[in-house]
Amino acid sequence: MISRRIIRTKAMHTLYAFYSSSEKSISNTEKELFFSIQKAYDLYHLLLALGIEVKKYAAERIESNRNKLRPTEDDLNPNLRFVNNAIIKKLEENVHFNEYLTDNKLSWINSEDMIQQLYRFMVETDLYIEYMASEEDSFEQDKKFMDKFFTRILLNFEDLFSELEETSVYWNDDVDFIVSIISRTVKKFKAESSEHMRLLPLFKDDEDREFAQELIRKVLINHKEYNTIIKDNLKNWDIDRIAFLDIIIMEMAVTEFLEFTAVPTKVTLNEYIELSKRYSTSRSSTFINGILDKILKDLKKNDRVKKAGRGLIGE
Question: Where are the domains of the chain?
């Protein structure tokens, strides 16, 4: 589930905290990296659960309206399409999903006001109105709506971000990515999917888990050497005047050039330039691109870049 871009992002934040702190334990820093990655997986489950909570609130409103002293025709014969949504039902019944929520004590129990506001926001959207009014009533229609609920309604609901910011410092930067993963999860559901269907795992495979651990460990162990490589390529630049985050980004890139034989140098360059665009100064990406390009040429000239694997030899 967690992409290597997210791993790199989490590693960058963790390294920044390490260098900014008096605490200099590599072991603790590794633990902090994996904790932050685990928190992203918590958010994946928690946002999926939000669809269930909104449905529960909608069902409560329907029941309350039915019990009015003078219910209208609509109150007595409500449109049940959303509260009967097949994808929400699949999540409610999913054994592994519910076990994760229980084991990790994840819930929206203290967010009733936010859930009510989200419901009110949702029912005013054209997406919801069209879904409820559609003549087609099918599993695929339910799936399409829930995909739009997460990718378009939820991402435009500003109160969610405030709620998450108050709950965990790890989450706001992750929402866009996690929602894209939730979209993939929703699309995986089939009408015949059982309650034992597995959701997406934390890591795609063991290689990604090892990549996370080795990246941060090798940056820290080789910090002095790689920092020197960067300094040697900063012609007419004083390293003390360069943004601290830019130095960390370049150290991570140099680490991948030298230590990760299966990662193409082009991928490394693209990934860290994108990181600098999102998290550093407006001029950082151009600056980092130029310095890393120069470093890579020097490393290749000295035969220090060793890439192995299909299509990577001599790249």
Answer: 4-188, 222-301
The residue type at 227? N
For the segment(s) 222-301, the CATH number from 3.10.20.600, 3.40.190.10, 3.60.40.10, 1.10.940.10 is 1.10.940.10
Q: Residue 270: phi, psi to the nearest 5?
A: -60, -45
Q: What is the pLDDT along the chain (315 residues), one digit of tens a residue?
A: 889 999 999 999 999 999 998 878 999 999 999 999 999 999 999 999 999 999 999 999 999 999 888 988 888 989 999 999 999 999 999 999 999 999 999 999 999 999 999 999 999 999 999 999 999 899 999 999 999 999 999 999 999 999 999 888 888 789 999 999 999 999 999 999 999 999 999 999 999 999 999 999 999 999 999 999 999 998 777 666 788 999 999 999 999 999 999 999 999 999 999 999 999 888 889 999 999 999 999 999 999 999 887 656 556
The whole-angstrom separation of Cα 312 and Cα 136 is: 50
Pairwise CA distance, residues 226 & 135, whole Å: 63
User: What's the rounded Cα separation, in Å, for the pair 285 and 296?
Assistant: 16
| Burial degree of 224 (CB within 10 A; 0-12, 13-18, 19+) | exposed
Q: Report which of 42, 67, 52, 64 is spatially closest to residue 118, judged by C-alpha positions.
A: 52
Encoding tokens for residue 280?
């550093």
